[in-house]
Design goal:
The chain is mostly helical and 182 residues long. It has nine helices and three strands; from the N terminus they run H-E-E-E-H-H-H-H-H-H-H-H.
Length: 182
């Protein structure tokens, strides 16, 4: 599963990009120069290798935040969280899930509210498991929609607060929100 998700992200992100309005600076395969450097790469970003990008995506955006554990319960949700993590950071994606689960727990009757700390742990996994069991066949789709709604709102807010981000807003909404239905 993760190999297909990584391939899709790399295909969507493309090769080398250094857009003047992007605060992230130079990227290759969607990996920023700062992330590449933090993971031991010291060369020119134009020559950053695809296998290094794949390894970073697998480690930092899938395994480390615990989305692999989400995939065991809700694979389509895990795919959406991975895609959100790539563009917004793993903690933001995890927080979106925690916020959605807390808002959907029927006032705490189904499971306790979560501490929205951006870390997938035993409480988040338990809440997800209980939510999926109690809400049935449509539960995963509802959670995906909630995460996408939060993601879309964040993109709009980014563009409203920094006009240079308007250069990216259309693409973010077209290519990131609704990611499970692409």
């Amino acid at each position: 599963m993760i190999d297909d998700l990584i391939d899709a992200v790399i295909d969507r992100e493309g090769g080398y990009v250094n857009h003047p309005a992007d605060r992230g600076g130079a990227t290759r395969f969607g990996i920023t120069e700062a992330v590449a450097r933090a993971n031991g790469y010291s060369g020119d970003m134009q020559h950053f290798a695809r296998p290094a990008a794949v390894a970073i995506y697998r480690r930092l955006y899938w395994a480390a935040p615990g989305f692999d554990r989400i995939a065991a319960l809700a694979p389509r949700l895990a795919a959406e969280l991975f895609d959100t993590a790539v563009n917004m950071g793993p903690a933001v994606a995890a927080t979106f899930l925690q916020r959605a689960l807390s808002a959907l727990n029927r006032g705490g009757r189904d499971y306790p509210d979560l501490d929205c700390d951006g870390r997938i742990g035993a409480q988040t996994l338990d809440a997800l498991s209980r939510f999926l069991k109690m809400r049935g066949n449509t539960a995963e789709t509802v959670l995906i929609r909630a995460v996408e709604a939060l993601q879309g709102e964040r993109y709009l807010s980014l563009a409203e607060h920094r006009p240079a981000n308007e250069a990216f807003l259309y693409g973010w909404l077209a290519n990131r929100v609704g990611g499970t239905e692409r």
